[in-house]
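Researcher: Re-running this chain for the archive, since the previous output was lost when a drive failed. Same request as before.
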Amino acid sequence: MAGTTASVAMELFIGPQRHHPLDPDGTIPSNHLHNFEHSSISITFFLYAACAIVLTGPTSRPTSDLPTWGFGHPPSCPKGVS
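Model: Regenerated C-alpha cells:
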C-alpha cells in the first residue's frame, strides 16, 4: 500500500515539471494524461489491498485444527464420501 501511495505521488505531484497535476484553468493537460492513467491504476491496487485487509479481518487466520481438504476426509464427511 505504501508503494501505491508513492506511485501516485510520483505520477501526479513529483513527476510533472510544475509539481501540479492540473493546468491553471483546472483541466488535465494532454501531455500528462498518461500520468492520470497510471495513478488511477495505482489507486485501484490500493483499494484492492485495503478491501482485502478489511474483509479478511482477524477471524480468518489459519489455525492448526483445520481439516486437510484433498488429503483425506474432513471430519464432517463420512468415510465413503469425499
